[in-house]
Structures are given as structure tokens and as C-alpha cells.
Structure prediction request, 783 residues.
Amino acid sequence: MSSSCATGIIGEDIDSVVDEVKDEIDVPVVAVHCEGFKSKIWATGFDISDHAVLQAIVQKPRPNAPKNNKINFKNFFESARPEIIEIFKNFDLDPVFLYCNSTVEELSTLSENLATTCICGTLGNYLGNALEEKYGVPYVRSINQCGIKGFEAWLREIGRVTNRSEKIEKYIAEQRAIYLPQIEEVKKQLEGLTAVLGMGPGYTFEVSRVLDELGIKVVWALAWHYDKKYENGDVPPSMKYLLDNNIDFETSVADQQNYEVMNILNKYKPDMYLSRHPGSTVWAIKNGTPAVYVADEYMIFGYKHTLEFAKTVLDTIQNRSFEANLAKRTKLPYTKWWYEQNVDKFFEESK
Amino acid sequence: MAKILDKQRYKCALAAMQTVQAIERACPVLHSGPGCAQKLADTTGSSGYLSPQIFPCTSINEKDVVFGGVKKLSTTIENALKVIDADLFVVLTGCIPEIVGDDAQEVVSKFQEQGKPVVFAPSAGFKGNNYKGHEQVVDAIVTQYLERSDEREKGLVNLWADVPYQDLFWLGNIRELENLLREIGLKPNTIFGYQRGIENIKLIPKAEFNLLVSPWVGLQNMKTMEKHLGIPYLHYPVLPVGATETGKFLREVGKFAGIDSEKVESVIKKHEDYFYYLISRYADLFLENRVINKQFSLVADAQYALAITKFLVNDLGLIPAKQFVTDDTPKQFQEAIKSEFQNLNYGIKADVDFQTDGYKIHEEIKSHDYHGYPLILGGYYEKEVTESLKGNFLNISWPVLDKVVIDRFYAGYTGGIRLIEDIYTVAVQRFN
Prediction:
């Protein structure tokens, strides 16, 4: 039972209501405090939903629970579900996808599974950390599955926590032989291109890494927000990787208002804009900047999709007709004055 | 027991931001929580000059709930005026500021005193749906932006019909209605869509009359304009679709405007000739297919439920099963709408249910004897239930998830033909 702005402000006691009806209803009922004004970042909702699942559905591991090969896998829309099931068969692992098609029964036994991983740290770290802290289910902490570096680091970490390193190394070697030469081939045509990207705190820095792998120079990365420290106190792995490997670019946090993005695109005139959020790419193309919409969380997943992504970027910048035609005939809604300002014009010092 | 809203078919009043969006170079400014615009922006065709993702918004947080958000609203408007190149700014308030008591009117007044083109439309979600919100926006523009004019332009008529974006065919419909009015010699003035906008808003006070083509949405605006601008109105409750209804519509508007009936009849004849030329060529398809039966149900807002029922009965000769009006029609309008549903050829009467509980609607559809495959025109929610009955489904009302409508329309003679095309496209796609 979730609260809204209106019920939150007038102080409806939904917890008591839930307590009253809980016993009469034979499915889990839980109060979810998710008033829209509660947080400045929408990703708080991910944590809130994880909290509700942990509170009301997930049970303690049963003492006599049968041993299983299941790994919890939190993702968004599951487009790669069949593919991941196939990949994980190589490692004798059975993924439990969360939450799109989850059943209460599946969720209630999450604590009995081998490990937890996720497609995006922002999305899954609350659940992963909680399952680890409360029930000792290891949470796979690594850079995410985007790109070659990320995919391999992620697989190896899964191998380490589930004792399957040998199988993982075998798979990596096979896949490398198939895909690396092809990716190297596309890379030749991508080298030297420039990009601006605007995404969530996870993908901004994960995709920046992939672009670096593909030889594309990130000139500015905008993140919706940034957790300096994760729940366990560490710097997020995606940022640590960029720092350790000296991959340097302009970045800004929480400014992803469209007028700010447009100011940056207009100033830097990159070869492409990459974004993950509805209603954002259209503004780049109206500016004449080719845009790649990275909405599907599996668009850059592993070897196969990194290759596809590289080719999609190439296709996008090769034919700029659509954006060129539209940009030529579009009047943008921002004033000339605004384009002359620095992007941080309206920022105020925090008190 | 609280009234149940199951399978929601409208949005909250704040979705009237889309009414503002439909006015070229008008910009909504939201005084609301973060995410309201995103949640309300589900409709395709909205990445034009401004899109919901980029509307200026105060993005109210916990601190503003406690201490009030008027200062934030003031700076948001002030900076929107600097950054966004627009001619009219419409401030809309969501649930939060209206509960905590922010005086948005006061903030907006300050800008109005400086001569800035800013108006305020209260649109808290808990006060009503986006049909009401649409009326709030039009009322705000009329009362805060316009003044009574002594000048009247001969033949000029302000035309109002669908709610932009909520209604799939809003753009095409209003253009087609304009064309029809123009043909009988009137000068239609509309404010929504391509090459309409602020100049048309400024023209409103000079019109001879307002014409509302809608069962109830917009009636409040007609009354406001009558009072504030001294403009009389003709309330025509049926969106005309097809030959029979469009003929009636033109005759009544012509009579009200004092247009020579010969002129009106010649326009009707010209259109009917072509309409029946097409119908006659395709009549065999209507008669000799094996999947479209006589009985149908509409599940839609009052506008479409009524318009399409009239068309299917009076032009295509079908028989209405129960019709479902899902827009939460206020009680005071229900009787008049009901009587329109009972005013059909051959004394046929359509039973109409004003219903916001989708479960009940589906139970009724399942239990009705359609004498064969049902024909259901409704929201996307009806797709599955229609398929389970092996019926024919056409998505004509919100939510629309299985079709893209760019500027097609169902209004008028041509609109009737388009609707037939859509229905029989569904029919021929199945085993026939």
C-alpha cells in the first residue's frame, strides 16, 4: 500500500491500516512510504521498493532449505532474460530475475540463494547489501556488465563468490576469440569521435568506461545524482575504475535539466549524445546532434551487445539525415541569452 | 464504500499541462513535486516545441512542504521567463502546494502587475481529472489574459471540441471541423495546434459566438466567456462523425449563425455525394464479411462514446449494446447525455452506463449477448477482454497503446470514412 504526496502531507497512518488488515488477507501486505516529495532523486524509489520486499516478503533461510544454484539478478525490463539463462547454464547457475515477473514464492526465498547481482548498482545495491548483511548472501560488487572490461570483471566476481572461476575463465576465452577481433574492427571507425552523455549515476560512469574502450572521447558526462559512497562505504566501482585508469572528462551531477544539457551540447558540439531517459534524445537531435538512446539496460551487455552497440553508434553517426533535416527546420525553445550563459548560472551555494 | 477507479481512463487535473502544450508558444510552469510531469506525459506526439520532460517545475521537496514553496515558485517563473522563449506562461499547481496552502495566485499576480504574460490555473490532482483541468486552463486564460471587446468580427466563431492529447484525434478533428465551418461561410477561430496560438487567443473576444462541440467538457468555459467577454454560445453536444450527424451539425450551426440554408444544403450535398460514392463501393464488404455483427459497445469518454454510437447506429445501421462513459461525467450533465443516447434513428435507444470501475464494465461486456462476435471500441484495457470473446477491438480512447495517430481524425464526413477503414481493417486482419 503506497502513499502519495497528498496522503503523506495530510499524515494518513497507512502503517496502522496495513497492521489492521494484514491478518485478514492471505497475501503479504506492506506499507510503502514513497511520497513524491520525499527525495530529490527518483532512484530512492528503488531502495524503498527493495525495503518493502525485504520487510514483507523475504523470509529467513529455512534450516532445511535444499541447496540450489540460484543467483538473484535484479534488472529493469528483462529483454535479455532468455540469453542470460543460456549464458548462466555454462556456469551451472540459475538466475532469478527481479522484479518484473517475480512471484511472491520466488521472493520469499531470496535469502537462500548463492549470491545477488544486478544490472545497475543504483537499482540493486539496497537489496544486494541487505541480503548480504542480514542473511550472508554475497553481493557481487564490480563494475557492471557494459563493455568488455565490465563484463569480464563482473563474470570473474561471480566466479569468485560462487566458486566457479574455472568455468567462467573457459567461457571468457571462448567468447573473446569470437568477438574481440570484430569489436577491434569497428573501433577503427569510432576512434576519435566525441560524446556527451546524460544518464543515471550508475550508467553515466559505466558507459563512459565503455566509450573509452571503444576509442570515443567523452567530453562531458552528466549524472542525475551521485552516491559518493555506497551502503558499504566504498566509492562506487564504476567511478573507482575511471579514477584508477586515469580516464578524465568534464562531469557534473544533478544538473540534468534539459536547458542545461542543451547549453552543453551547443557549446561542445559533440558527435553524439547518449541518454537513457524518455524525452531526452529528441532535444539533442533538434540541436543537430546525433543521439543514441540507451534505454534497454542490455544494450551494451557483454561481448555480443558491446559489438552491436559499437555498430549502432557507427550507424547513427554515419547517417545524420534525420537530425540534420529536423534541426534545420526547428526553432529551439531557449533564449539566445541562455546559450550565452555558463551552465551553472542558476546554482546557489548550499547553506 | 469509496468509489472505485479501476482501469483508469483519465489523468489528474495537472495533466491539463497538455492543454497548455497544445497552444503554440505557451509554456506550462509546474508548481508540483518532482516526477508529476513525467508521470502525466504518457502520450505520443508531445516532443514538439516544448515537451513535458522540459516544462519548468519547482520540483517541491520535503523542505518546501514544511516551509512553503512560494519563493521557489517565484524564482522558477522569473528564470523561466529568462530561459524559455515563449509568449504565454501558465502556472499549474499540483497536490502539494494546494494542501500546504501556497498562495500561487499571489505570486503570479506580481508578474502580471509587471506586465508579464503569466496566468495561473489551480489544478490539484485531488480536485478532479484532466477534463476539469482542461477547463481550468481555458478559464484561466480567458479571465486573466483577455478583456471584453466592443468590436465583433462578422462570421468569426470560436470553436472548441476535444481535450488535446487526452483525445487521440484532437488535432485532426479540430482542423476538420474548421474546414466544415469555413465551407458554410464562417470564420472559425481555434487556439490549439499548428499555426494557431496566442494570436487566436487574442481574437477570442471579437467572435460573434462560441461553438462547443462536446457533451459536457468545456461548458464551464462557454459560461465564463459569456459572463466575462459577453459572447453567446451554441452548445452542440455531439461530435459529428459521418454523413447523418455531420449534416445535422451543419444545419444547426448554420441556423444559429443565420446562414442561408441553401448554402448549407449545397455543402451537405457535395459531401454526401462523395461519402455515399465511397460507401456504395464498399457496402458489400460491410454486408458480406463474416466477423462484424450488428451489436457493439463503446468504452470511452462522453465525447467519443456518444459520437461513435450515433455514427454506427445512424449511418452504418448497427445496434447499440450497452455503452460505457468513463470520463467521470459530473452528475448534472448525465441526464442530458443519456437523452442523446436515446435519440437515435428508428427510435433506437442506447443504454448508457456512467462507470469508472473497469471491472464492472468488463463483467457487463462478458455477460452481454452480442448475437455473435462483439465489436468493442474502447481503451487498450478492452483489448484482452474482447479477444477472449473472439470479438473485434478498436482502440479509440485513452489509454491508446496499439496505434499511432498523427493527424488522422474521425470528425465530419471524411472522419466517418476513416473510422470505417479502421473497423474493417480489424475485421479483414482475422480469418474471414
In short: DSSP finds 15 helices and eight strands in chain A. Chain A touches chain B at residues 4-6, 9-10, 35-40, 42, 257-259, 277-280, 282-283, 331-335, 337-338, 346 (CB under 8 Å).
